[in-house]
Design brief:
With 374 residues, the chain is of the alpha/beta class. It is built from 16 helices and 13 strands. It is 45% helix and 14% strand. Helix 2 crosses helix 16.
Length: 374
């Protein structure tokens, strides 16, 4: 089987969508080496995160011959390359499919990570909302099969885009295998020293933006005078309001923002944390929760989207606007060693549901289904 991918984010994005793309392609290549995998990207970018390209000879990177009009190539021109390469199934890894691809006869799959731009349009400017809506609706309409990264996202696709639920298959993502490796005490201490982190801290990972809702975490921290919080992620304009709030309540010495963390250092940062808190209002899946569980860290997360699917029944959850409830649950976990130990054990057990063998088989079943459907 020859499988093509819209791999722009695999090459150019080194957070959520890029992580998903690299994980999926490398996992499928490892589990199903008999197939050929073609990664179509408007341009390539050297990164140690792309090392798998040299490991698997059955993965081929394809870029346009000219650097001009790469957006047009990705939107429509790519179809010529797909035909030339004899692609049987083309998989749009991040909400999009090329325009006109139904006429090519090539079977299509699209992964839908979320419908944030429709569910929470206030987080986007008007032009971005319009573009996202057009792309989402088109991809869902023309795809032979839609892959949703969670049941919650599937439900939103059905409710907000009117898509037939029978057309959608839920295939969960997995995190990088590095989060399974147990870091030594020396490794953790070296990483803490590198980023000047405190010896004990609560951790939160994610872009500092309104949807991620770090505000509620800062408000919860006002109940504590000695608890340290480390927030790992790129800062947006939203961070200025957070820092103003911190100054008002004299929390500057308790909260530390860290961006540009090397990916290889993240497992040690997770494993050194006493607790992981993910307060996001809305996610497609919530991969940092799974990273924390596989790192052996207790998790508290917000209710209301798909985070219960990522965290399982033994993660603690709170209403995303209720900083008092969050503060109480932080206190509970930090002051009850037996509870924390049980949450770690049960969370680790739950994380075993997300394994590469199972998830790769589910994705390959989707490909075979679209190929064999008349």
């Amino acid at each position: 089987m020859k499988i093509g991918y819209d791999a722009k984010r695999a090459f150019l994005n080194f957070t959520g969508l890029g992580n998903y793309s690299r994980w999926l392609v490398s996992t499928l290549a490892q589990q199903y080496p008999e197939n050929e995998y073609y990664l179509y990207t408007p341009k390539a970018k050297n990164s140690d995160r792309l090392g798998f390209l040299s490991v698997f000879t059955q993965i081929h990177a394809v870029a346009p011959r000219r650097n001009l009009f790469t957006a047009v190539w990705r939107t429509t021109g790519i179809i010529k390359n797909l035909k030339k390469d004899g692609i049987g199934v083309f998989h749009g890894l991040s909400h999009e499919l090329p325009y006109g691809i139904p006429k090519s006869g090539i079977k299509t799959v699209v992964t839908m990570h979320d419908v944030i731009s429709i569910r929470y349009p206030e987080y986007f400017d008007r032009i971005s909302r319009a573009i996202y809506r057009v792309k989402l609706k088109y991809a869902c309409r023309v795809a032979d099969r839609i892959v949703s990264v969670s049941q919650h996202t599937k439900d939103d696709i059905v409710a907000l885009l009117g898509t037939d639920p029978q057309k959608i298959t839920v295939v969960y993502p997995n995190c990088h295998p590095s989060f399974l490796r147990v870091c030594s005490t020396e490794e953790k201490q070296a990483v803490l020293k590198k980023y000047k982190l405190p010896p004990e801290y609560i951790l939160s990972v994610g872009t500092v933006e309104e949807r991620k809702n770090q505000w509620v975490l800062i408000n919860a921290l006002t109940f504590y005078s000695d608890m340290k919080l480390v927030i790992v992620g790129k800062q947006t304009a939203y961070a200025a309001g957070i820092k103003k709030r911190m100054s008002k309540f004299q929390l500057n010495n308790q909260v530390m923002f860290v961006d540009n963390v090397h990916f290889d250092d993240l497992p040690a940062i997770y494993q050194a944390a006493k607790l992981f808190v993910y307060p996001s209002r809305y996610e497609g899946f919530g991969l940092p929760i799974l990273e924390a569980l596989k790192s052996g860290t207790a998790v508290i997360a917000a209710k209301g989207s798909c985070l219960e699917e990522a965290g399982g029944p033994d993660t603690l959850y709170f209403e995303p606007d209720d900083h008092i409830e969050l503060a109480e649950k932080i206190h509970l976990v930090m002051n009850d060693p037996a509870l924390r130990k049980n949450m770690i054990a049960k969370g680790t057990e739950y994380s075993l549901n997300f394994n590469d063998d199972k998830l790769a088989a589910e994705m390959m079943a989707v490909y075979n289904q679209v190929l064999n459907h008349a």
